[in-house]
Design goal:
Helix content is 26%, strand content 37%. The protein has helices spanning 5-9, 13-20, 23-36, 52-59, 71-83, 123-138, 275-280, 289-296; strands at residues 42-46, 63-68, 90-94, 108-111, 144-146, 149-159, 162-163, 166-167, 172-174, 183-185, 190-196, 204-212, 217-233, 238-243, 246-257, 262-270, 282-286. Strands 6, 9, 10, 11, 13, 14 and 15 form a seven-stranded antiparallel sheet that branches. Strands 3-2-1-4-5 form a five-stranded parallel sheet, with helices on both faces. It has a three-stranded antiparallel sheet with strand order 12-16-17. Strand 4, helix 6 (123-138) and strand 5 form a beta-alpha-beta unit. The longest helix has 16 residues, at 123-138. Its EC number is 2.1.1.-. Keywords: Methyltransferase, Ribonucleoprotein, Ribosomal protein, Transferase. It holds the Pfam family Methyltransf_25.
């Protein structure tokens, strides 16, 4: 098992600064917090990083507990929150988010320790620990979580792996967009797991399903889609979502497929572990047509 410093806990500061430049991420969380947080509420920001989510909550009139383990980030957040004139509304707690228990009941918990497939970072682990610690001290009524849920999906694709004439089938991160140069969709995404944060959830994936190819070509990769439902408004019948970057994982042995072919896919890995555990936990085989006819008979 890798050390917590490797698995998302002590991400270099420049990565946090780059995240501030991701307008899709920033505006999605800003809108979700504006939709959820009201003046006078108390908010906990688990793994607060640069303090931007604490800032959004404070600007909505909330009292905020910012919780961060990394001492460098604590000092960065302290400076940024002071610059943005919300330091009087934010209590900075230098502590591991998985052990923090707020001294009072809270209304909302934000936690953005999210990575594709829910690996690498400690989202599921930290929220589960928080729920257990919180209910022991404050009773069974949980606060609302941002995000409220994460949906994990997989999609068959044909991926170009040419780099200046050099063929190298490697895992690729992509912007979360319907069309990406070099990627051809062979079928629709299929949800393989859903995590709802205020409910009990599994800490690993063990899924088997059959995907039907809608296009013919060379199935040489699976694209992993991670959709985070940040906030759901029942009144407006709407949701605010944010997708992690897509991850395209190459197959060890490409499969030639035609429209209507069925591919049996198995996915097995634990959350909060290495990316390699995710793609090593994927296997597939084409379902023979004789078996398809037998199943549908």
């Amino acid at each position: 098992m890798s050390s917590p410093e490797i698995l998302g806990q002590f991400i270099p500061l420049h990565y946090h600064y780059d995240m501030l430049r991701d307008n899709y991420r920033m505006t999605s969380f800003q809108e979700a917090i504006a939709e959820t947080v009201r003046p006078g509420m108390t908010v906990v920001d688990l793994g607060g990083g640069t303090g931007v989510l604490s800032y959004f909550a404070a600007m909505e009139g909330a009292k905020v507990y910012y919780v961060e383990r990394n001492p460098e980030l604590v000092e960065v957040a302290r400076r940024f929150l002071r610059i943005n004139k919300v330091e009087d509304r934010v209590t900075i707690v230098h502590q591991d988010a998985s052990t923090f228990v707020p001294p009072e009941p809270v209304d909302v918990v934000t936690c953005e320790m999210l990575h594709v497939g829910l690996v690498r970072e400690k989202q599921t682990e930290v929220i589960e620990a928080f729920k257990q610690n919180y209910t022991q001290k404050h009773g069974t009524k949980l606060p609302r979580f941002i995000p409220e849920a994460t949906l994990l999906a997989v999609q068959p694709v044909m991926q170009t792996y040419q780099f200046a004439g050099f063929h190298a089938p490697v895992p690729l991160f992509q912007p979360p967009s319907a069309e990406v140069a070099g990627t051809q969709e062979l079928g629709s995404p299929e949800v393989y797991q859903t995590v709802i944060y205020d409910e009990q959830y599994a800490h690993e994936v063990s899924w088997k399903g059959i995907l039907t190819m809608q296009q013919g070509g060379t199935l040489n990769a699976w694209r992993l889609v991670t959709k985070n439902v940040l906030s759901i408004s029942v009144e407006k019948q709407s949701e605010i979502c944010w997708h992690n970057q897509y991850l395209v994982v190459p197959l060890h042995e490409p499969l030639e497929v035609e429209p209507g072919d069925r591919v049996e896919l198995q996915i097995q890995y634990a959350y909060c572990m290495e990316l390699s555990d995710l793609w090593n936990g994927i296997s597939q085989r084409i379902v023979p047509q004789t078996m398809v006819r037998r199943v549908s008979a």
